[in-house]
Amino acid sequence: MALVRERRQLNLRLPLPPISDRRFSVSSSVTTTTVAATSGCNGISAGDLEKLNVLGCGNGGIVYKVSHKTTSEIYALKTVNGDMDPIFTRQLMREMEILRRTDSPYVVKCHGIFEKPVVGEVSILMEYMDGGTLESLRGGVTEQKLAGFAKQILKGLSYLHALKIVHRDIKPANLLLNSRNEVKIADFGVSKILVRSLDSCNSYVGTCAYMSPERFDSESSGGSSDIYAGDIWSFGLMMLELLVGHFPLLPPGQRPDWATLMCAVCFGEPPRAPEGCSEEFRSFVECCLRKDSSKRWTASQLLAHPFLREDL
Ligand code: ATP
Ligand code: MG
C-alpha cells in the first residue's frame, strides 16, 4: 500500500502538544516588540506594527496579534524565521501565493507580505479573526449553528475549487471565527494550485487524521480520484467532530497513531452521525463521507443539500 511504502513522509499532525512542548519557544519577550522594518505592503510597513501577543503557533510558524501604531487597527501576522527548516519557508511562500490570488468573504484576507531576505524571515499580514478557531467549539455546536458554519465553509471551498486550489488541510483549527459569526478558511501552507488537469494530490501533506481514503491510498482509486473531493471528506469529518465533540473515526479519548488511523479510514466504514440527529444532517454527513471519491458530493452540490435549507 502506498502509505506503507511512504510512511516516513507521513505528517501525522494530530493533537498538538501543549504550547510549552512545541518546537517554538515563544516567550513573553515577544510581547509589545516592534516588528523590524522591511519593505511596505498596501501602505503598511512592518515598522508600523507592534506585536501584542501570540495567537497560535503551528508546525509552520508563529502567528502574532499585532496593532498598527498609528491607526490602532488590529491584524494577525504569521511569521516564519530564517533559522527554521526551509520547508516551512516554502510553505509560507505557497500560502502567500494563494492568499494573493484569493478575494472572498469566506477566505481569510491577506493585507500584505513582509520579507527580510537577509535573515530569511517571511511574514504574512492578515485580517484578525477575533473569535478563535472552530476547534474550541467542538461538541458544543447545535445542528442549526453547524448549518450556518457549513454554508460559509462550503462557499469558501466552492470558491477555492473553482480557482483550482485544493486546501488539503481542512480541520477545525484552520477555520477561523470572528465576532460577526463569520467563519473563514485559513492556513494554506500545504494547499496546492492545480495547473494541469492531470495533477494529482495524493502526497501525504496536511493533517493525516482528516485525510481521505484516496489520499491515504492512491491505488485504491486507480490514481484518478477527484482531487477536490479530499477537502470534502475532511470537511465532513470536521462537521461530525464539531457535533459529537471528539474525532469521529476513533472512540472518545483514544490517541490515534498513523496505523490505527489508516485502518479506520481505509478499511473501516465511514463514520455516521449519531442517533438523535436529524435525517437531514445524517444524509449531509453521508454525502461528504463516501469512501469512493467520485460519489462524494462537491461543495456546490452540498450547498443545495436539504440540511442547508433556510427554513430548517
Ligand atoms: P498548523 O501547522 O498547526 O496548522 P500553522 O503554523 O500552519 O499551524 P495557522 O494554522 O495558519 O498556522 O495558524 C496557527 C493558529 O494561529 C491558528 O490555529 C489560530 O489559532 C491562529 N491564527 C492564524 N491566523 C489567524 C488570524 N488571521 N486571526 C486570528 N488568529 C489566527
Ligand atoms: Mg494551521
From TrEMBL:
Positions annotated to bind ATP: 78
Domain Protein kinase: 49-308
Gene Ontology MF: a single term: protein serine/threonine kinase activity
Alphabetically ordered keywords of this record: ATP-binding, Kinase, Nucleotide-binding, Phosphoprotein, Serine/threonine-protein kinase, Transferase
Enzyme Commission number, as recorded: 2.7.12.2
InterPro entries linked: Kinase-like_dom_sf, Prot_kinase_dom, Protein_kinase_ATP_BS, Ser/Thr_kinase_AS
Secretion signal span: none
GO BP terms: camalexin biosynthetic process; ethylene biosynthetic process; ethylene-activated signaling pathway; leaf senescence; pollen-pistil interaction; positive regulation of DNA-templated transcription; response to fungus; response to salt stress
Family: Belongs to the protein kinase superfamily. STE Ser/Thr protein kinase family. MAP kinase kinase subfamily.
Name of this chain's protein: mitogen-activated protein kinase kinase
